[in-house]
Amino acid sequence: MPDPMPLPAGASRHDPLRDPWVPAMRRALAEAAAATGTGDVPVGAVLLGPGGSGGPVLAAGRNEREATGDPTAHAELLALRAAAARRGEWRLSGCTLVVTLEPCTMCAGAAVLSRVDRVVYGAVDPKAGAAGSLWDVLRDRRLNHRPEVIPGVLAADCARLLTDFFGPFRRT
Questions:
Q1: Is residue 158 a known part of a binding site?
Q2: Which of 75, 108, 130, 166 is least enclosed, having the fewest CB within 10 Å?
């Protein structure tokens, strides 16, 4: 069904749920882009301190599995570890994890265990996503902590970065 209220060229709809997270997602996208320099999949994350979308950036991370040879060196885990070290506390209550790709089961589990208040992500990961795509670890009622989940922030930009990275591999 066509949009009953088309927007003028160059205009965009205001999205009160996602718009506040755009600056943090742009920072995560910059981290993701830097990962390609080491041959890593371009996923980036930032951990915001208390204050919601206006909270300070406590830490940032990008995938470093290829760079380090560490299978757990996902952007989310690196950001969570750095933020916990900076705060001197493993409980990251009040904090928000912003990541360019829907977290996998390992990273979703770490978000739950670290007690972040919310997880904001860009692109959906239908093959390994654990925030509603393949699994839903973040909202599993059997767990003792369930962060708020805000999907789809700059989703097209986040997906494009991954598509551009994987494009050459798919053409051969």
A1: no
A2: 166
